[in-house]
User: Which sequence fits this backbone?
């Protein structure tokens, strides 16, 4: 099991890192909403290795048998690799590649809010957003949130894969 987790986990990590970097450099002209969609799609593609890793383990290392629990365990471990890949690249992006990201994101979000809210709502919401960015806008925290997001999505994919691939 260890070899399978490491093999497919590394595939997932590398795919996450490559897709993240590609979306950064090729998607510079897109707005934040489009970049977010591309980001989630990248997560799902990199987490597809969860399914393939579980299937490989069942078919090639465990004689075609696999319990739900073991499948879920393998999937979550592979998801941790993908989360690590996204977290590291996100941290590097925020600290090295674009250290002004938080400020740019805040300004762009405030612009969008200004056009879609009434002046009174904008005042209230902009204060809330500024407080959130101040409290949680650190690069380490943002990278951690990215890691957790990927692992949660990976857990869901692991759960579904375990349901479909378990065999007694």
Assistant:
């Amino acid at each position: 099991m260890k070899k399978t987790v490491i093999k497919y986990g590394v595939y997932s990590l590398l795919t996450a890192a490559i897709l993240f970097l590609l979306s950064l450099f090729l998607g510079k002209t897109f707005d934040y909403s489009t970049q977010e969609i591309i980001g989630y799609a990248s997560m799902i593609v990199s987490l597809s290795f969860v399914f393939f890793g579980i299937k490989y383990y069942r078919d090639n290392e465990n004689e075609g048998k696999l319990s739900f629990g073991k499948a879920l365990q393998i999937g979550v471990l592979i998801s941790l690799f993908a989360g690590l890949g996204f977290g590291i690249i996100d941290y590097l992006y925020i600290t090295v590649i674009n250290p002004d990201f938080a400020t740019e994101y805040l300004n762009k979000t405030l612009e969008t809010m200004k056009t879609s809210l009434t002046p009174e709502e904008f005042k209230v919401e902009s204060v809330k957003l500024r407080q959130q960015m101040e409290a949680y806008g650190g690069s380490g925290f943002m990278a951690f949130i990215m890691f957790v997001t990927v692992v949660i999505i990976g857990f869901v994919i692991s759960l579904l894969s375990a349901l479909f691939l378990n065999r007694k």
Observations:
- Residues 2-96+139-165 form one domain.
- The two ends are 17 Å apart (CA to CA).
